[in-house]
Specification:
Blueprint: E1 29-33, H1 37-42, E2 49-50, H2 56-62, E3 70-74, H3 78-92, E4 95-100, H4 102-112, E5 119-121, H5 123-131, E6 136-139, H6 143-148, E7 150-151, E8 155-156, E9 175-178, H7 185-194, E10 200-203, H8 206-212, E11 217-218
Parallel strand pairs: 1-2, 1-3, 3-4, 5-10, 6-8, 6-9, 9-10
Antiparallel strand pairs: 7-11
Length: 220
């Protein structure tokens, strides 16, 4: 993965140098995407991780994903970078390699091929798939929340243990990621996608939306 976005793709952020060709293919590069979950799901650079908020940095660490020497960031606006960029850069202790705006995504696609993508599903659609055994639900909420109520047949895999918990699950398995409110599902989905699973969805609105839809649940 890599690209050399033209100067017009660069956000006007001091010190935000652009990555060189192939930079994000290197093992010493960490690529974080700060765009909205919907924008990320519609197309992302393979190997990147979605960061819906700065608190997900600790989840990156817990999953052993903070590695390398250079940090590259994708964002939609200067405001997003101002809100999260400083926390991300200071929290990871990596050399800041550069930042791309939206046009950089298209530049990458033209140079290197298809972007990755995730499906966003509604609660009723997920209920139908679960009843037909057509998807495996990965519930990333806390143990206490999972035990109180959960989608039937869901697997409990907290968001801080994803990289070590899917071993043995076939890569072609259809997965749906469920968090509490839908806010962090995109982070977990990006981790799972980068573990080699390509049929990955996330539940819009999270478990809260499923609960509000009065769909079948399991309880301890």
């Amino acid at each position: 993965m890599g690209a050399t976005p033209s100067g017009e793709n660069r956000l006007p952020i001091e010190g935000g140098g652009l990555p060189s060709i192939g930079a994000t293919q290197e093992s010493d590069a960490l690529l974080l995407d700060l765009r909205s979950p919907t924008a990320f799901a519609s197309g992302f650079i393979p190997g990147s991780f979605h960061l819906p908020d700065a608190s997900c940095l600790e989840l990156l660490r817990a999953n052993g994903l903070v590695r390398g020497k250079k940090l590259f960031i994708i964002t939609e606006t200067d405001e997003q970078m101002a809100q999260y960029g400083e926390a991300v850069a200071s929290g990871l202790d990596l050399e800041f390699g550069g930042v791309w705006g939206p046009a950089g995504m298209e530049e990458w696609r033209k140079r290197y091929g298809d972007l990755g993508s995730l499906e966003i599903v509604e609660a009723d659609t997920l209920a139908v798939r679960v009843s037909a055994w057509k998807t495996v639900v990965i519930d990333t909420r806390t143990r206490a929340a999972f035990e109180r109520a959960r989608i039937r047949e869901a697997l409990h895999i907290p968001a801080d243990t994803l990289t070590g918990s899917l071993t043995g699950l076939p890569a072609e398995t259809a997965l749906c990621i469920v968090c509490e409110t839908g806010k962090r599902g995109s982070f977990a989905a990006s981790v799972v996608w980068n573990l080699g699973y390509r049929n990955v969805a996330m539940l819009r609105g999270g478990f809260a939306a499923y609960l509000e839809s009065h769909l079948p649940l399991a309880r301890s």
